[in-house]
Design goal:
The chain is of the alpha+beta class. It has a seven-stranded antiparallel sheet, with helices on one face. A six-stranded antiparallel sheet has the order 7-8-11-12-16-17. A three-stranded mixed sheet has the order 13-14-15. Helix 5 runs antiparallel to helix 8. The protein is globular and about 60 Å long. About 55% of the residues are buried. About 0% of the residues have low confidence. Bound molecules: 6-diazenyl-5-OXO-L-norleucine.
Length: about 550
């Protein structure tokens, strides 16, 4: 065994100032959790399309290294349906002529989980005081930061929907237009909310003035989140999904995310097919990817939901014999029919935004966080006086049985709306370990259901094709989610490849761009290497 390269602290995030905040926290002696929490709050200020206080997310990590005890953790801070939510609320809203109620406006929001999640992580596993990790975000909100081109462009794109809500207009379109890129963007109400959270911790968001602002706005706009819903919100520690990957293993998010189980399934099914670097980008390779994706998404869409409400049939879904049998039904050069894998179910323009960030510290801890408002800028409702946007996560439930949601997903009654339930997610924060059980990579991306298939392809790039971290992220991605029965190809994949895939029987579609990957790797040859996807506008910051 040769000596491993020294580790550096690093943060990869979708917005450079937030990545820098994380690296500074590491430099000041914080651990990967301290940095992750600081990045989470910073993104809520600098990347309002997806960074959030009014949304939710998942954190997966390996922590405790350097302190003698190592834990593999998964924290669920997904939004919860309010107590007054019902299975048919969106069908009824549609009948009453309220269009897209699960997507835009007050009924679209679940009870936010991010503040509970970040502060729970901080209290359980962080080493710094709360103030220290939220202060950088507070400074960015109070003193402002140069409006980024990306946010300015996204705000311009979302303007029509956003202008339906006065408070949203006041913050993001002061005087009728967005703050131009490069000009200082200040968010004073948001700063005050962050101050309250610094002072009071979790109750500073779920009780008192901030909670009052949310409830008043809900009543005003016909929403159903109540003071009691906010008080009742809890993040939940869950057992990560763990699966063999390469010479080591990987951990990812369990239900209410579908990410972990699908990754484990797809990894196993693909392991039956020999692969080497020269197979990359061939029709044969994309065909195999599509077939394992199809089979796994069939399970996802039929069986998964909030494990606190439904039996997700995990034992069956994780059973290796069943996966091996499914893999054996994959034919070379011939597409299967999605219908063959579905018995129980009742395309999409993808909203761009969720966001993922990856953190590694010098001690060898790794933390992966994916967080979201669901669509870009969520429900578009900004809480007046509190300065943050609310999510439209309710659309991740099976809102109209038998019909596709925003991501084209057709899901089952396992994911029906119910009071206190969490909608099924595809977010897949993932940590990879080498044969010595040391953290070797931290992975994740936004992209709705393409999150799962993108994380899978980066894993396969790193482990089965021998790609560098850079190529694993940069290489063109494909996506299949069973229904619609379409193989999506990223823009750069040649037409000839698409034509061959069609001769195999695949129906194909195109995606301009898939994901905004944030990858950190600990490599034997190059030490700590970070990649922030060139498809997005993020960056990697390293410690000194
Ligand atoms: O939890 C989920 O699966 C979705 N709400 C994620 C949304 C998303 O990634 C949007 N960005 N592309």
């Amino acid at each position: 065994m040769f000596e491993k390269h020294a580790r550096r602290g690093a943060v990869a995030a979708a917005e450079p100032l937030a990545a820098a905040v994380g690296a500074k926290i590491l430099d000041a002696g914080g651990n990967a959790i301290d940095a992750a929490v600081a990045v989470g709050f910073a993104l809520a200020v600098t990347y309002p399309a997806a960074g959030n206080l009014g949304g939710g997310g998942f954190l997966v990590g390996s922590i405790g290294r350097g302190s003698g005890r190592t834990d593999e953790i998964a924290l669920d801070f997904r939004e919860m349906a309010p107590a007054a939510a019902t299975a048919d609320m969106y069908v009824r809203a549609a009948e009453a002529g309220i269009k897209k109620a699960s997507l835009v406006g007050h009924l679209a929001s679940g009870v936010p989980g991010s503040v509970s999640g970040l502060l729970t992580a901080q209290e359980k596993w962080g080493s710094m005081p709360r103030k220290k990790v939220i202060e950088p975000a507070l400074a960015l909100a109070r003193d402002g930061f140069p409006m980024t081109e990306r946010t300015q462009r996204m705000l311009t794109g979302a303007k029509q929907g956003m202008l339906r809500f006065e408070a949203t207009e006041e913050v993001f379109y002061p005087g009728g237009a967005t703050v131009p890129a490069g000009e200082n963007f200040v968010q004073l109400d948001l700063a005050r909310t962050l101050e309250t959270i610094i002072e009071q911790g979790i109750p500073g968001f779920y009780e008192g003035e901030v909670a009052d602002h949310i409830v008043v706005e809900m009543k005003r706009g016909g929403g159903i989140i109540s003071a009691r819903d906010l008080l009742a919100y809890r993040s939940v520690e869950r057992k990560p999904i763990r699966f063999t990957a390469g010479k080591g293993h990987a951990i990812s998010m369990p239900p209410p995310s579908s990410g972990g189980i699908c990754l484990a399934q797809m990894y196993r099914m693909l392991s039956h097919f020999p692969l080497e670097a020269t197979d990359a980008k061939t029709p044969k390779f994309y065909h195999l990817l599509a077939e394992v994706m199809r089979r796994s998404f069939a399970d996802r869409n039929q069986y998964l939901g909030d494990p606190d409400f439904v039996d997700c049939k995990m034992e069956m879904l994780e059973k290796l014999d069943r996966l091996d049998e499914r893999a054996s039904s994959i034919e070379q050069e011939k597409a299967s029919e999605s219908a063959d894998f579905l018995d129980d179910i009742a395309t999409p323009e993808e909203g761009e935004q969720t966001t993922h960030y990856s953190v590694m510290d010098k001690q060898g801890n790794g933390v992966a966080v994916t967080t979201t408002l669901n669509g870009s800028f969520g429900s578009k409702v900004l809480v007046p006086g509190a300065g943050f946007l609310l999510n439209n996560e309710m659309d991740d439930f099976t809102v109209h049985p038998g019909k596709p949601n925003m991501f084209g997903l057709i899901q089952s009654s396992a994911n029906a709306v119910a009071p206190g339930k969490r909608p099924l997610s595809s977010m897949s924060p993932t940590v990879l370990f080498d044969e010595d059980e040391d953290v070797s990579a931290v992975l994740g991306t936004p992209g709705g259901p393409t999150i799962i298939t993108n994380v899978f392809q980066v894993l396969i790039g790193l482990q089965r094709l021998g790609f560098s971290p850079e190529i694993s992220v940069a290489t063109s991605k494909v996506h299949h989610q069973c229904l619609p029965d379409l193989l999506y190809l990223e823009r750069a994949i040649p037409v000839e490849t698409e034509e061959t895939l069609r001769t195999f029987g695949h129906r194909t579609g195109r995606r301009v761009s898939i994901g905004d990957f944030q990858l950190l790797c600990q490599t034997k040859e190059r030490g700590t290497v970070g990649v922030s996807d060139s498809r997005g506008g993020g960056d990697v910051s390293y410690t000194n």
